[in-house]
Design a protein that fits this description.
alpha+beta; 171 residues; 7 strands; globular; single chain; 5-stranded mixed β-sheet
């Protein structure tokens, strides 16, 4: 677990470095989401959690770093697994385009998260309650969003948690 924390700290440090446009590539965000969900899906399903992914068919281009974007997606999924609690039975991923943005929403039916907890959950080493996590996962997601000209937000839902990563579509 300490190796994972060290890896996450290195990621956060790399994300703090200035981004130059020549470091960003046009990438198929849909493919990145598909790969990250395939990687994490095995782990999620092995825990007996239903896992559903919904994406549009066409390619969705964003200007970005494939490695950082994949890490953000995996952190959103990992956060749902680690913090969903004993009642967690379902995680869903929905990718959609809206206006000039692509929106990736990870939702679960677990313990829950509300928008008023945003400041705490997106801060480094922050946890709302003790868990096996490092408190860095959502902080990394937030840093990745900012690096890519986007934002991450906690959605108001009746049950569980729902977090959306908003990124601009590449023209």
């Amino acid at each position: 677990n300490s190796a994972k924390v060290a890896e996450q700290l290195l990621s956060l440090e790399r994300l703090r470095q200035p981004t130059h446009q020549d470091q960003m590539d046009k990438i198929d965000f849909r493919a990145v989401v598909e790969e990250a969900c395939a990687d994490m899906g095995v782990h999620i399903l092995a825990k007996g959690i239903d896992f559903e992914v919904s994406m549009p068919e066409p390619t969705i281009l964003v200007l970005g770093d494939r490695v950082f974007l994949a890490e953000a997606i995996k952190n959103l999924l990992d956060n749902a697994v680690k913090h969903g609690g004993a009642i967690l039975s379902r995680i869903s991923v929905v990718l959609r385009c809206e206006g000039g943005d692509v929106k990736l929403t990870v939702s679960d039916d677990g313990t829950g998260l509300s928008p008023d907890q945003s400041e705490a959950v997106f801060s480094r080493f922050s946890q709302l309650e003790y868990s096996e996590g490092s408190g860095l996962g959502l902080s990394i997601v937030s840093a990745v969003a900012k690096r890519h000209g986007g934002v991450v937000a906690i959605n108001q839902v009746e049950k569980g948690a729902s977090v959306t990563l908003h990124l601009p579509i590449a023209l």
